[in-house]
Amino acid sequence: MSSYHLDHLQYLETEAIHIMREVAGEFERPALLFSGGKDSICLLRLAEKAFRPADIPMPFLNVETGHEFPELISFRDSRAKELGAKLIVRTVDEAIAKGHATPAPGEISRNKLQIPVLLGAIEEFQFDCAIGGARRDEEKARAKERFFSFRDSFGQWDPKAQRPEIWNLYNARVNPGENMRVFPLSNWTEMDVWQYIKREQLTVPTIYFSHERECFRRGGQWIPVPPPHTDTTKPDSFAGARPKPTEPIKKLVVRVRTIADMISTGMIESPADSVDDIIGEVAAARVTERGTRADDKASEAAMEDRKKAGYF
After folding, report:
1. pLDDT, position 1
2. Position 306 confidence tier, pLDDT thresholds 50, 70, 90
3. Is-contact 127 30, C-beta < 8 A?
4. Full set of structural domains in the chain with CATH
């Protein structure tokens, strides 16, 4: 009599697929948050396995800051098209123009401005659930999150008032105006993600691999030089993120470990040009991947404060 045992990745996969199907069964209007980053790429493969040969029963939603890497936007669009999915994009620039988001004086990062854009999209399309690729190993605030994370009618999260999750039973009940964030990759690690990408032979944006790029040093990190500002009729939204005279530009062989926008993403010097190379680097790393994000390094409480206000 033989027995069947799941390996580590298979267990994580079956857990995440179960959660995906719970979302499809419990909610009327779910959405899948898809940025084109490595975690959301894994979510798409899990959605395929959960629902194929039927169509993935939810649209993809992405909030643009206006400071994205061009490679990421191109990959996002092409992957959604390949899957025949509806891709909904809402931008910080549109929200600013309509007065729904207001940049703080002197603040360069637009991460906080994503909050009203995301909440506005949830209200616009009446989404009652948004599936995200957050993992508990990323940083302290993420580690407090349950698989099913309740958000009140203002889109806010209270980490002290989360619902119990006993075994694999999840409380998905929401009242009109409330919504749920669901994180199928909660128990995954950065290593698990890359091993899954290798096993499934998933394509990822080229900026995850080593390439030559102009960077400058700021806050202990290598920051990519933003694209040149060419439209003189509009303000330069990258102005505060451009290198100062005291920040010399260097051409380096770098890659991204985790992708935010060009202002927040710290590049790491690396020769890794394959998934196997990246897995080796992750195994040897002594800094968490979010340690390469400038907005998170600024304050240990930065992520939790944003999440309480309605962030991803």
Report:
1. 47
2. confident
3. yes
4. 8-202+302-309 (3.40.50.620), 206-296 (no CATH)
